[in-house]
Specification:
InterPro entries: DUF72 (IPR002763), UPF0759_sf (IPR036520). By secondary structure, this protein is of the alpha/beta class. The chain has 10 helices and 10 strands.
C-alpha cells in the first residue's frame, strides 16, 4: 500500500480563522502553519492561484512546517486557462497600457512574458522542492474547458511546463468523462505521467465529474468538494458547505485504501472549506484509515 497523506485545501482561509479551530494564541501565519502541520501531513496552497509568491514566502513555509510535510500548489490562474487581474502579474510582465483591474488571458501576453511567468513561478517553488516538501502543481482547468484536441494539447503543454515538478490535473466539465471520452482522457494523462485529480462532488450538472478512482502516475490525488444542494445556485460558501456523514467517510476509507495500492503516494484533500468542517472530516477520515499519525490529528481540542 502506498503512503496516504490527508489534509485540507487551506490552512488560513478567513472562515477557518473565524471558526475557533486554532486555539487562542495561535494567531500568526507561522504559528498557524506549525499548528496545522502537527495534525496533517499535506495542505493545498490556494494563494498561488491568485499571485506568484515571493521566494521569501515559500522559504517561510519550509521553515515553519515539519520535515516531512508536503505542499500541493495550485497553479497560477493564467496557466490553467483562467483570467487574472493585471495587478496580479509582475509589473514588468504586464501588457503595455493594461490597467490594474483589467482581466487578462494568456493570449494577452507576449510569448516571452508567458514563458517568464512560468520561470518565476517554478523559481518560487524551489525552496519547497529542495527540502522535499513540494507535492504536485495542481492545474485546475475551468468549468468551461471542454473536451477537444486543442484542449488536450493545452493540458499536455501545461504539464510539460511544470517539469521537473509533478503536475496534477483537475477537469471540471462532464465532456471529458462521457462513455466515449473517459478512457481516452485517462489514457492521455497516464501516457504523459500526469496525476489525475479525482473529485467527489455533486452530480447531475454540466460541470459534474464522476468520482473515478484511478492512479495515472506514481502520485494519486483525490479532492473532496462535498455534496451541497446549492452547488449550481449558491455562492462559494454555499457551494462547499457540506459535512460528510460517518457512513460516507467509512465508504470512502475503503475506496481510498484500494486506490493507495495503485500509487506510491496518495494525496487526499478535503475541500469542503466552510469554517472548520474540512479539518473535522479530514481527522475522521485519517482515523478510519488507521493512519499512524491519526491520533495526533484527532487529539486535543482542535480536532
Amino acid at each position: 500500500m502506498g503512503e496516504i497523506l490527508i489534509g485540507t485545501s487551506s490552512w488560513a482561509d478567513k472562515l477557518l480563522l473565524a471558526s475557533g479551530w486554532y486555539p487562542p494564541g495561535v494567531n500568526t501565519a507561522a504559528a498557524r502553519l506549525a499548528y496545522y502541520g502537527r495534525r496533517y501531513q499535506v495542505v493545498e496552497v490556494d494563494t498561488t492561484y491568485y499571485a506568484i509568491p515571493a521566494v521569501e514566502v515559500t522559504e517561510s513555509w519550509v521553515a515553519h512546517s515539519p520535515e516531512s510535510f508536503v505542499f500541493d500548489i495550485k497553479a497560477f490562474s493564467i496557466f490553467s486557462g483562467h483570467t487574472t487581474k493585471a495587478a496580479n502579474l509582475p509589473q514588468d510582465l504586464r501588457p503595455a497600457g493594461a490597467h490594474s483591474e483589467e482581466q487578462l488571458r494568456r493570449r494577452d501576453l507576449s510569448v516571452g512574458a508567458y514563458d517568464e511567468l512560468w520561470s518565476r513561478f517554478k523559481e518560487s517553488l524551489e525552496p519547497l522542492a529542495v527540502k522535499g516538501k513540494l507535492g504536485v502543481i495542481l492545474l485546475q482547468f475551468p468549468h468551461w474547458f471542454k473536451h477537444g484536441e486543442r484542449e488536450q494539447r493545452r493540458i499536455i503543454d501545461s504539464a510539460l511546463r511544470c517539469q521537473p515538478f509533478r503536475a496534477a490535473v483537475e477537469l471540471r466539465h462532464s465532456s471529458w468523462f462521457t462513455a466515449q471520452t473517459a478512457e481516452r482522457t485517462l489514457a492521455m494523462l497516464a501516457e504523459h505521467d500526469i496525476t489525475y485529480c479525482c473529485v467527489d462532488m455533486p452530480q447531475g450538472h454540466e460541470t459534474s465529474v464522476p468520482p473515478i478512482l484511478i492512479a495515472t502516475a506514481d502520485t494519486a490525488m483525490v479532492r473532496f468538494h462535498g455534496h451541497s444542494k446549492l452547488w449550481a445556485t449558491g455562492n462559494k460558501q454555499e457551494q462547499f458547505r457540506y459535512a460528510y456523514g460517518d457512513d460516507e467517510l467509512a465508504a470512502w476509507a475503503v475506496r481510498l485504501r484500494e486506490l493507495s495500492h495503485e500509487a506510491d503516494r496518495l494525496h487526499v484533500l478535503m475541500n469542503n472549506c466552510c469554517a472548520g468542517q474540512a479539518q473535522t472530516d479530514a481527522a475522521k477520515l485519517a482515523e478510519l484509515l488507521g493512519l499512524p499519525w491519526s491520533h495526533e490529528v484527532c487529539g486535543g481540542s482542535a480536532g
